[in-house]
Amino acid sequence: MAITVTVVDDHPAILSGVRVWYGEADQPIRVVAAGTTVDVAWTSPGDEADVVVLDLNVGDERAPYQRAVRRLVDAGRKVIVYTMQDSEEVALTCLDLGVSAFLTKSEGHEHLVAATIAAAENRPYLPPTLAGAIAGDRGPAHPRLSDREREVLTQWFQCESKQLVADRMNITPRTVGTYLDRVRVKYANAGRPAPTKAALLARAIQDGLVGLHDL
């Protein structure tokens, strides 16, 4: 079954290019909507695309890009920011808001396609710009995780679902969820909430809990 995508960008050449890149991908990816404002991402309930690819500099959202990102994420949408901005601060802010991935347009179509597939499968994806931003940022508060919590966390980053983690570790999916909830609570209590898998991965890398080799 094809992954469905809504693309929000005000450059016709980018829209055309993205359609071509997805059409040439090994895994079927279909652009079901495209437009120059975030409004194009809002369709009838049940008809939403699997992934929203969002340029931060579109329509009336040029300054308060956080508003558009937060609105989509709060509605449960999987958002990939795809922008000309290469600011580490903007990248980390978007992660904190809950996006699935942050890419600059200079990183090429390979990363966009890979990030789209990862987002649709609820997996984190680290393109070079985002990896650099995460590595360069050190949060002030480092919650203390147990060895078991760290083990579950690492396994979850390597798997597409809690069921796969449970199968690997010979525990139940409910137990996996309990460990992950504990980790999220610890980060929230430290003032560094991690509402999504991508955000939690960023926190874990920042704190040295996992490395890129673990993924």
Automatic annotation (TrEMBL):
It holds the Pfam family GerE. InterPro entries: CheY-like_superfamily, Sig_transdc_resp-reg_C-effctor, Sig_transdc_resp-reg_receiver, Tscrpt_reg_LuxR_C, WalR-like, WH-like_DNA-bd_sf. One of its GO terms (molecular function) is DNA binding. Residues 4-120 form the Response regulatory domain. The keyword Transcription applies. The keyword DNA-binding applies. Coiled coil: none annotated. SMART domains: HTH_LUXR, REC. Keywords: DNA-binding, Phosphoprotein, Transcription, Transcription regulation. The modification 4-aspartylphosphate is found at D55. This is DNA-binding NarL/FixJ family response regulator.
